[in-house]
Known about the structure:
This protein is an alpha/beta fold. The protein has 5 helices and 7 strands. It has a 7-stranded mixed sheet with strand order 3-2-1-4-5-7-6, sandwiched between helices. Helix 1 packs across helix 2 (29-37) and helix 4 (98-110) runs parallel beside helix 5 (127-136). It is globular.
Amino acid sequence: MYLSIRLQLVFDHLVPDQDVWDFCCDHGYLGGAAYKSRSFKDIYFVDPVPSIMDNLKNRFQTFVLIADNKSQAHFLVQKGETVSQIVQGNVCIVGVGGLMICDILKSLAEKNLLQAKRLILGPHRDSEKLIEMVEKNDLFKKYKLVKKKDVMENGRKRDFFIFDAI
């Protein structure tokens, strides 16, 4: 499965043997690659668009599903802010605005559901607001920025932030 430069960066920073939460998953390439690698626990695809998720499930069944995989794939057709189960392992939110990432993380943290070991965040705008929210909001005091990386893709600079649980 081919990953773009930025999705490969995310994949390369996933903590093995943990769940992978692919929020705003779109086509599901990141979660699909994580599933096929057999290096992670359960894979959660989260996106609010039913047609996107239907297409993803169909492609997954046809091209990705592995009979003896220890991982299970879960498809949640909902906004990230409305997830109501504990979110552990790796949380990946890439390719959406920083304010949307803030909304998802804040909602999960307020409900005490955000228990991830690692947050991998790749906003396409509002990076400064995202960093400010995570670093200054008491809801996120258990996370520390461990890596910031800029990646050029299609002539555009993309910011990536990796936070680990303290």
